[in-house]
Amino acid sequence: MTRYDPSLVVKRLVVKRGANTMYDEAFHTGVNVVRGDNSSGKS
């Protein structure tokens, strides 16, 4: 029997607005926390 363990690994997140980089962060293995004010667009 073959077991599938689907996963998604995000190594880096870059958010751009036009030519400007608004957010650029590299993530590490394990738990990474993105925090910010309410209604700031984290989700």
TrEMBL record:
Entry protein name: Rad50/SbcC-type AAA domain-containing protein
Domain of life: Bacteria
